[in-house]
Design brief:
single chain, DUF2384 domain-containing protein, mainly alpha
């Protein structure tokens, strides 16, 4: 049996989904940060970037994001969606993000505090504790 290679139209074959993914991810990140009332310093720590890079990202560049940034943002989105679904209210979910919790992995800290102090491990830990999963972002292919 012979396999046929499908020829995509130029407007589809030339579509750079990775740069669009970065745009959408950053838009979601900054919206969530607005809802969480995060400071500039907290946003820098959440994305693990400096002020200049944060301001460049705030302009929503149409270029691919690093895998680490995509994982961080995907975790924020999962936590955000889970809390909003759980509380049926964005303000209540956002208050919960800053409220201390007992037990593992929080030990009296708020989920946002664990994310801020734990780096990518803290972010993934909070995501696992609240959303029940850690996102899988496509790994770059080995050449």
């Amino acid at each position: 049996m012979r396999k046929h290679r499908v020829q995509l139209p130029p407007e589809i074959s030339g579509f750079d989904y990775k740069s669009k993914l970065g745009y959408v991810a950053l838009k979601a990140f900054f919206r969530i940060c607005n809802d969480w009332n995060t400071t500039i310093d907290e946003q820098m720590r959440l994305l693990n970037v400096g002020l200049i890079q944060l301001e460049k990202l705030r302009k929503l560049p149409a270029e691919p994001l690093e895998r680490e940034h995509l994982v961080r943002i995907r975790c924020f989105v999962l936590v955000y969606k889970t809390l909003v679904r759980e509380h049926n209210s964005i303000p209540a979910a956002n208050r919960d993000m800053r409220s201390p919790r007992s037990g593992n992995p929080f030990f009296g800290k708020s989920p946002l505090n664990v994310m801020l102090t734990g780096g990518i491990v803290g972010i993934a830990t909070v995501c696992k504790a609240i959303a029940g999963e850690i996102p899988d972002v496509e790994l770059p292919k080995a050449s």
